[in-house]
Amino acid sequence: TKKTSPKTPKVSIVIPAYNEESMIAGCLDVLIPQLKRGDEVIVVDNNSTDKTVKIAKKYKVRVLKESRQGQVFAQDTGFAAAKNEIIARIDADTFVMPEWLEAIRSSFKERDVIAATGMVLPRESYFKKGPVLITRLAYESQRLMMGSYLTFGSNCAFRKTAWKAIRNQQMMRSDIWEDVDMGILLSRRGRVHFIKEPLATISVRRLTGSPLTTYPYLFRLTKTYWLWGKKIAAVFSVLERAVLIALGVPFIMIEAMLSIVFGLFRRSR
After folding, report:
1. What are the helix and strand counts (H, E) for the chain?
2. Rounded to an integer, what distance in angstroms lies between the CA atom of residue 203 and that of residue 121?
3. How far is 12 from 159, CA to CA, in rounded Å?
């Protein structure tokens, strides 16, 4: 029998933000109504030069400053300042559904769960053709490849005690996917619960911008795998992204189809 906790956990939601004046209000508008007594929202400004901070201060949130540039530093500052045992992490362009926070709380009823993550769906019309099934397959294929679900930065949560245990093991560099780095570390310490319902949407602006910014961003995953010694996964991710760039098709479908093939190949060995 799995051990459960009778208490309803309080949650600290951390949102790193850099020049998100067009998104932060929408993010907070759908998040704030879900809060209960004791919950908190922490927006970490990462050197914004637009109206991000001014907009955020209109809401009942804590606004912190992190001068070291990069999401990995901004989230670290937010996590350290969090008052509650459960820390949720979303992006400034994450729009959560009304039942999102309750799903986060429910994920930690079982004491062996140290982290939770869930699907996010793209909001831009070009990407809406990718069905929920394809998105789910992408997450499942990652589980096959890595042996566990990994925390996805746009929609995840974890116990603060678990984060403290891995904090000094993180790479703390802005040229990798910091959520994958953190996710690998967390998955080695306990069970990562997967929230099956798609309870959040994100903007995929980074995948539709200039190649000068899109391509380096995509290949950060390759670097993350390589630095972790996941050589086969790193090589695969290069091929995956090469196909993506060549075909110009939605990222989530390439991620799903190719990752499934690799995941099954890894599972069979």
Report:
1. 11, 10
2. 9
3. 10
